[in-house]
Amino acid sequence: MLGAPYANAFVFPAPARKLLSRLRAMTIRLHRGDLPDDANLGDCVAIDTETLGLVPHRDRLCVVQLSRGDGTADVVQIAAGQSRAPNIERLLADPSVLKLFHFARFDIAVLFRAFGVMAGPIYCTKIASKLARTYTDRHGLKDLVRELLGHEISKQQQSSDWGSDSLSEAQLAYAASDVLYLHALRTRLDAMLKREGRFEIAQECFGFLPARARLDLMGWAEADIFSHQ
Amino acid sequence: MLGAPYANAFVFPAPARKLLSRLRAMTIRLHRGDLPDDANLGDCVAIDTETLGLVPHRDRLCVVQLSRGDGTADVVQIAAGQSRAPNIERLLADPSVLKLFHFARFDIAVLFRAFGVMAGPIYCTKIASKLARTYTDRHGLKDLVRELLGHEISKQQQSSDWGSDSLSEAQLAYAASDVLYLHALRTRLDAMLKREGRFEIAQECFGFLPARARLDLMGWAEADIFSHQ
Amino acid sequence: MLGAPYANAFVFPAPARKLLSRLRAMTIRLHRGDLPDDANLGDCVAIDTETLGLVPHRDRLCVVQLSRGDGTADVVQIAAGQSRAPNIERLLADPSVLKLFHFARFDIAVLFRAFGVMAGPIYCTKIASKLARTYTDRHGLKDLVRELLGHEISKQQQSSDWGSDSLSEAQLAYAASDVLYLHALRTRLDAMLKREGRFEIAQECFGFLPARARLDLMGWAEADIFSHQ
Amino acid sequence: MLGAPYANAFVFPAPARKLLSRLRAMTIRLHRGDLPDDANLGDCVAIDTETLGLVPHRDRLCVVQLSRGDGTADVVQIAAGQSRAPNIERLLADPSVLKLFHFARFDIAVLFRAFGVMAGPIYCTKIASKLARTYTDRHGLKDLVRELLGHEISKQQQSSDWGSDSLSEAQLAYAASDVLYLHALRTRLDAMLKREGRFEIAQECFGFLPARARLDLMGWAEADIFSHQ
Amino acid sequence: MLGAPYANAFVFPAPARKLLSRLRAMTIRLHRGDLPDDANLGDCVAIDTETLGLVPHRDRLCVVQLSRGDGTADVVQIAAGQSRAPNIERLLADPSVLKLFHFARFDIAVLFRAFGVMAGPIYCTKIASKLARTYTDRHGLKDLVRELLGHEISKQQQSSDWGSDSLSEAQLAYAASDVLYLHALRTRLDAMLKREGRFEIAQECFGFLPARARLDLMGWAEADIFSHQ
Amino acid sequence: MLGAPYANAFVFPAPARKLLSRLRAMTIRLHRGDLPDDANLGDCVAIDTETLGLVPHRDRLCVVQLSRGDGTADVVQIAAGQSRAPNIERLLADPSVLKLFHFARFDIAVLFRAFGVMAGPIYCTKIASKLARTYTDRHGLKDLVRELLGHEISKQQQSSDWGSDSLSEAQLAYAASDVLYLHALRTRLDAMLKREGRFEIAQECFGFLPARARLDLMGWAEADIFSHQ
Amino acid sequence: MLGAPYANAFVFPAPARKLLSRLRAMTIRLHRGDLPDDANLGDCVAIDTETLGLVPHRDRLCVVQLSRGDGTADVVQIAAGQSRAPNIERLLADPSVLKLFHFARFDIAVLFRAFGVMAGPIYCTKIASKLARTYTDRHGLKDLVRELLGHEISKQQQSSDWGSDSLSEAQLAYAASDVLYLHALRTRLDAMLKREGRFEIAQECFGFLPARARLDLMGWAEADIFSHQ
Amino acid sequence: MLGAPYANAFVFPAPARKLLSRLRAMTIRLHRGDLPDDANLGDCVAIDTETLGLVPHRDRLCVVQLSRGDGTADVVQIAAGQSRAPNIERLLADPSVLKLFHFARFDIAVLFRAFGVMAGPIYCTKIASKLARTYTDRHGLKDLVRELLGHEISKQQQSSDWGSDSLSEAQLAYAASDVLYLHALRTRLDAMLKREGRFEIAQECFGFLPARARLDLMGWAEADIFSHQ
């Protein structure tokens, strides 16, 4: 359902077809260029991005997905050449809003390159999982959601043309699914981190993420700057 | 020459033989167990360690070398089983003294494991070199000293029995040589980092080193915690 | 249905069995040795070849498939030892006819070796895909047809005995399927290339393909002639 | 000796020391920012560049070396942030001047990134060597100069700080040595290419170099765009 | 069914759901901290352990499973920080009780690290399989149980959070399944080892396992101490 | 059905169960120690062997399967320690009987080691396939039977305990299936070899197989004796 | 010294310079196109070839060196495009003359491709060394000559331009040195092969060499046709 | 000097030439077939072997070297086909004589294969070095002798023809040098092992060596039987 603050947004109809069945009655708000001015995403927002590929200097930002953790998602299409998105920028920079990502390193670099704003403070579910789930080496979002939340999410649209002017329903559903579970994952991962006494080291790792992303953009993407090599 | 504060220290005789010729009249003060109480190493001290190997849970700390950058070195032998060295600990923890290392990650982990003190603040010439000397992938101490300072240092004793009760002259000369050049390297590297606008990112990397060392000791030594894998 | 210009050609019956069901009522014209004299393939023809393998000096050309993009295909069997096919040669050399291939490098080398004619001008859907679809590293024909056209094509007969005197129905259907989609793919890929400003660089790459194929035949097949090695 | 057209250039003194002995009485003209307006480099100029490293988006152009093949070299220092060098730009773009490089792909990308001008026409001694000298896989400049010209050149300064404000004599001598032999190499390589019937394919490869360099800058540096992968 | 000696133990209900169907009416006794005092596991006990991961110095012991080979299993949860379990310790050290493991090397190291007791005497079904089943390189427990006993066991819960305070039914069923088959496997493997004259060499390998586990804990986990390297 | 010459042989009942359904009414004659004296396998016999593994000096011969190409198979169990089998030996050495194998190199080495007789003359369907089927790199028996004969054979029992005193029905069916198709494969492969002018080179390769097997047994199993290394 | 039968041959002067000193007073007869009609090379001739590289379909034969084992060598330059050399062809095909090569596989393929004659009978010192000298994996000609004959030969000219019209003295000396030692090596290797009972298997390997060379030319150069892959 | 018990042994003359200079006045006693009956090698004997290579089933034992640690060596040539050497066998089996080897695993397997006697008790300087010298990964005999004893030994003759009927002086000197230092190395390594608390684990490793060698001969030479794979 489309809430008042998003009057001019396209509301993605509750999926009826088989492909989308697992996203039951999910509400997706689609925007072009930026979040609406009156969007209220709370003090802890899950964020993910879709780009044209993994090479930062080549593959532009196409979509930013956000969720306040209430089962709804805002999907913002970014135009080719667009270099400002004031509402998103304000949110990224807001020190009172925690930004949840899965593999934040990539997303915050992409967002910094697109809009010149370094996100913070940050929580990264991939790093949290590496520190908490020592019993496995599978730390993909799909793995986390399956084991910790008991859901199956599809990654089939991950490699698709996010630069297309009109995204397909499957793309929208996929994009949204990447931010709908991060709040719940954080709750589970924090409990494990605390149980094993690794909560503080996780915070220190999160704290270095902006520097790590800056190194990526500056030309050290391939290097583990801390390695002996 | 043996200075007053180190009255009970063994002074390594100025090397006469060919092997040691390049360390001309170098003054090395040898201590057992700790620095003397009245040691004064200034506000910027170069530190290196020698261990029985590279496996932290197995290979104990044997030697700590320190230099205030005046061409002299203090070499402290650490006994097997020793878990305290108050003067060294105080120095490591002193927030007003910058600690210079080459590949600090290893040394601060070793020192933390030996004495329970995490060193700080830190400057690492290997990281500085990776950020400043983009024109090469050789960031060993020997490489830095050769290119930036025009000296040749020998690494021949690097793999020797540092747990031996009495170190050879060659070992002492080698141990000292690892701390004698760090101040000069820092000067050169800082100039390059500033020239290329990378001084700040270097500081951020140095700042994460204690967390990186803690990850090593906690069991993530093999992992780049920030990698996608 | 068999059109008039192909009076002496064998017409492959519309497939009835399950295996071929996805090629609904596809018209395949089978020829021996060359295209018929009155074949008219338009100004943009999709071409593919089947050989006895991937070693140019060993594995001879067996089949040339062509389509004008109207959903029908001409499949020409080439006899062992055959070194001329005047109608095909004329088509390959005709500067007013664009030749579409998927991985043209291989096919134009095979055709040049068989008939001594270098094809041109050329469009290669694999190169176009590498430049346009930066969000994936899957650039096989099957991948392109699935994502961009929503069809599934089978590659099961790819490795089969194309030197056999009588090709099976499955082989014919497979051979045809490799040229039926290239026109539609080109349309989609050109739109993406233009959207991202990569249309010109794609043309430059197509332009080098004859030289690249000649290098393959001259003995540099393994080398990237432009690499630093 | 310093010729009239270069009145304001620093003339590097004929090297006296052992290190430089093999560059007998070589004349090197050092310039800052651009070639002098009245420089005359003939219709065939050897060009090489020195940068801060091999990552185009990170490592800036520091030095451009040029030689008209008369045993003298012009060495131009490029300042950090400099984005124009009108005389060099004019030379690069001049269709009547052949530009000789060793591994042109890198240099023309660097120059294009620095000044926005794509060099042409081009001759690349590395590609020529790969096509002519099939009896070896050593196609470094040092290898070519040794085998074809009987000289030994040193590559010791290759990895040094070319961003330094004042280059050392060793750096200048090294920089110059990279352009002094290209004319002679071209003569030898062209003779071999013609003898083996590979002169035309070499021209075709040279012709694709601007596109190859553009692909590097656009984000396909790692890919052989023509490979099957 | 819950036997008298285990009055205060939780009895896992006979699984009704599909997931657990293959463990028909299996009896699992769940304990916290240690075996009950009156547990009687016979003179040949199958043992397996679950930990938080594979890094001994990081990943603590969470569960010890034991079976006397009668189709029932005792599952003992070990608390974080727990360093004693007298009944388990007594069993491990009892020279009159043969301990069966699959890949004993890992389990006896984990148990030694947790409780300071080296298990013995030992039988390892993985080593027995390597010596007896030369016709395959698949020596996982699942492979052995399938081929030699005709059962299928699931490894799906292998990588799950064994440190959780309350284990799921699926975890309990998995944990138990790892000890229920070892007695039967030993019978089959011993017959094969004797048939091929390899029973004695197997005993010698079992005899070295405590030393091998000690090497792992001492810091040689990565090394084959007997290799030439 | 059991023919007269094999009066004392066990006749494997025509398989009724699903697993064996594809071997319709196949006749398998099981023997212990040798072929019966009056066995008549014609002038072209397909042979396969089963062993305890792939290490010749360790893993003994367990089973020899033979077929005259009439859809029936003789399966001979070889006892541990057995070193003679006169009827098999006579057959292997008979110069008037062609022996068909798939990957003869392994089988003739195993048979030579077991009985001291080098088989000859030999036809190897794997080598024939490598020379004829250049369009694929899949030359397993299963692949050949599928593509050239349109049957599916199972390899599931390939890694099973062939040293067992009583073989299972599944093992017998599998063992037989490895010799039932070799005659038909030879017919198909010979046609292809002749069509492509490779029949003679195939014969030369077959001729070297005894030497190749002898090299394996003499200690050069890992080496390609003809390689440059 | 120039013997009568070679009246029109160029006689290479006894080397005076340091480079050639180890070839003391070696007599080298240089010919163009073929051996002289009256050349008498005995019943056992050492042969080596020089080409433009290692790709048979690309890199033509340039030089054939021959020696009858008397310390002199005939060096025959082969012109580009030359396809006949009657005297060499007669020698290659003469069944009464044993041809000695080091790594015959390459040379006989090159000679067959150049002149259409397959050499035979053949002796290959590399294969003999692999079978006799099991104590090493160094089977280069240089290694054999050093260990078995106590001489050092230079391989420096191995990679040089053998297609040049006029070969340098260093090239001629190198070319000759490759055939001067083969007779002596054969004597030593045969003694070792006989001592260890490997003389017969060596003959069998030599016998397969023409087939192996034919496989190389037919397109199986990369494959070990006898491997399981 | 030749001692009385070795009256019929050849005494190797004190080396005069440069090559052997470092074995000053070393006494080597050469024997054929076995040690003399009255040889007295004390209760701790260093042993090494030379073979025709590293493949046990192919490469026979040629030489056994022994030393009682007094700077002299007995070198025993073993004939091809020899399967008994009573005095050596008695020594190997004598439980009161400790046998020192460097990489015992290989030598005791070779000796067991040659004479059917498993050596014991054993001390292996390579294993002792791996456990004591954790600061390096260089555990070759040459490395040990250099670091711990300050001598340089040559390995140049390591790969030579030990099956030759008459060994060269260089071979004899090399063979002897491999046993002359083992006593001194043991003293140094034992001191280090005790200092670090690793003496007992070393004994346990030595104790498994006969089983490890037996595994090698039985066909598990490639496998680390204790690995998880």
From TrEMBL, chains A, B, C, D, E, F, G, H:
Residues 26-194 form the 3'-5' exonuclease domain. Coiled coil: none annotated. GO terms for molecular function: 3'-5' exonuclease activity; nucleic acid binding. GO terms for biological process: nucleobase-containing compound metabolic process. Gene3D superfamilies: Ribonuclease H-like superfamily/Ribonuclease H (3.30.420.10). It holds the Pfam family DNA_pol_A_exo1. It comes from the Bacteria. This is Ribonuclease D. It comes from Methylocella tundrae.
